[in-house]
Specification:
The complex is a heterodimer. By secondary structure, chain A is an all-alpha fold. Chain A is about 85% helix and about 0% strand. The two termini of chain A are about 10 Å apart. Chain B is globular. The chains are: A mainly alpha, B alpha/beta.
Chain lengths: ~270, ~260
């Protein structure tokens, strides 16, 4: 026991500086990059019409914050609607592909091919077909977000140990019980990595759709400020897009943290 | 040798195949009585696991049948308990809920199942782990939790496929004697697959030596049956009976 305890302490000691490193190194790298950028702009090395300085971007963001917030809300609403429907469609596809092999064989290649079509190429078509309203934007987001969900769920369902299924059968489990107790929890693990990708696609998809037409949204804001050569505002909107994507990813992490408490235990075995 | 009534599980003339054409086993018969441990010993790939699958009802034999106290259960899973080398605990359920799984699947409420499982934790050496996740337990404890789940399946015939081979040598020894004591106490009839001759000689009341190489077109059959005189030696130390059984198994395997 004493030996075990000391091992725990020593492993903790070894882990602590590395945790600090994982935070400090990227922060320092980011700070250095921003400092070089700022310096290059302030000294006139790079003219402001080519690249606004970080401070100018922040200033533009502060000045235009109300307008940007309003546009962000539109983009967020589109992204949320698209992501929500995308996850639903993705889950239905995954369930059908898992349940019916013919369905899997028929749709697996089609789905992969659909993902090789560039979003930017299909967006104008969607605007042509569905107009300038909400529909083409949501459809584009659905198209880009359902795929990671389907792929992660299907591989999650397939990751189940066939011996586990046999064991469940010896307990007299029905197909639904096998799904509920074995397949679904196994897939949940992988679902979240797919969801994280889908979340970033959702914001980017919304912005791309807005570029091509619309009356509100960060993409619309970007096209407008670009036309007036306000590149500081353009960078400000990029900053907001990044922040929104990151926030959405964090939300997925939080969801995972809440719904999968056993994952937390796996990460911190030293508790018992 | 014995009447059907005394035997908990009887397999008669099992002929098994993976694909319907290549024979894995031919005419394998075996029986196990309540309170008895029967070991199946054979080389890797001889079809031990396939036989256990057939006994569990997971595979339907080409011919032959499986009788549970006289009732034909051939090809019907759900009436004998089955446990593998892997503990197969579900990572998202607590040890308590993992143990309760067979009861919940059988339709009992979570509360009723937990009430039934709670008093067992001490006997299985798992007190205090009720609310732990499987990932927080050691290999030996996880395996004990898997035994508890197997026990809660409520069947008195238990099929074990290499149940101790994933454990370290000391834990393996402990678990082996713990299992033998517990299964006799509870009157379980156990069929244990092992490739470890020592393990078979230590645990078994009877050893079936399986010979054959299905991959080379020689279906597996029961080569010899060795009855081991069990003398209660608490620490499973080397006895004359152990050595005699071991010699017999090795001779049987050599053909």
């Amino acid at each position: 026991m004493a030996q075990l305890a000391s091992e725990h302490i020593s492993s903790d000691h070894a882990a602590r500086p590395s945790r600090l490193r994982t935070v400090m190194v990227p922060v320092v790298a980011m700070a250095v990059l921003l400092a070089v950028w700022e310096l290059a702009c302030d000294t006139g090395l790079v003219p402001p019409f080519l690249l606004p300085s970080p401070s100018a971007v922040v200033l533009a963001l502060v000045k235009d914050v109300a307008l940007i917030a309003q546009h962000s809300l539109t983009t967020l609403a589109e992204a949320a609607a698209g992501l929500g429907i995308g996850v639903l469609v993705g889950a239905v596809f995954a369930l059908l592909m898992d349940r019916f092999e013919t369905f899997y064989l028929a749709f697996e290649p089609l789905m992969t091919i659909s993902q090789t079509i560039p979003t930017i190429a299909i967006a104008p078509l969607l605007v042509l077909w569905f107009g300038y309203g909400l529909a083409p934007k949501v459809i584009l987001i659905v198209l880009t977000t359902f795929f990671p969900v389907t792929v992660s769920l299907v591989s999650g369902f397939k990751s189940v140990d066939p011996d586990m299924v046999d064991l469940m059968r010896t307990m007299g489990a029905s197909r639904w019980q096998v799904f509920r107790y074995v397949k679904l929890p196994a897939a949940a693990d992988q679902l979240f990595s797919g969801l994280r990708i889908s979340a970033t696609y959702a914001i980017v998809g919304a912005v791309i759709a807005e570029w091509l037409g619309g009356t509100s949204g960060l993409g619309v804001y970007m096209t407008r400020v670009r036309k007036s050569f306000s590149y500081d505002k353009m960078f400000a909107s990029i900053l907001v897009i990044s922040a929104l994507s990151l926030a959405l990813m964090r939300l997925v992490d939080l969801l995972e943290h809440i719904t999968m408490p056993w994952k937390r235990a796996e990460g911190s075995k030293d508790h018992d | 040798m014995s009447t059907h009534d005394e035997q908990a599980l009887i397999a008669e003339g099992l002929t098994l195949s993976w694909d319907g054409r290549t024979l894995v086993t031919r005419d394998v018969s075996l029986e196990v009585a309540a309170g008895q441990v029967v070991c199946l010993v054979g080389k890797s790939g001889c079809g031990k696991t396939t036989i256990l699958h057939a006994l569990a009802g997971l595979t339907t034999p080409l011919s032959g049948r499986v009788l549970l106290r006289g009732t034909d259960i051939t090809g019907v899973p759900g009436s004998v308990s089955y446990m593998l080398q892997k503990d197969l605990l579900l990572p998202h359920l607590s040890i308590m809920d993992n143990a309760c799984l067979p009861l919940v699947i059988a339709g009992e409420s979570k509360e009723a199942a937990r009430a039934k499982a709670a008093p067992l934790f001490e006997r299985f050496g798992l007190e205090g782990t009720e609310r732990s996740w499987p990932s927080q337990l050691s290999g030996g404890m996880r395996q004990r939790a898997a035994f508890m789940r197997t026990y809660l399946m409520g069947n008195d015939v238990v099929l074990l496929d290499e149940p101790f081979s994933a454990l370290d040598a000391i834990t393996r020894g402990e678990m082996r004697s713990w299992y033998c004591d517990m299964s006799r106490e509870l009157g379980l009839a156990s069929v244990v697959i092992t490739h470890d001759v020592d393990e078979a000689a230590l645990m078994a009341d009877r050893i079936y030596v399986l010979v054959g190489t299905p991959s080379a077109g020689i279906p597996t059959e029961v080569g010899s049956v060795i009855d081991v005189a069990r003398i209660d030696v608490p620490d499973f130390s080397v006895t004359e009976e152990f050595l005699a059984a071991k010699r017999a198994v090795l001779a049987g395997l050599a053909g």
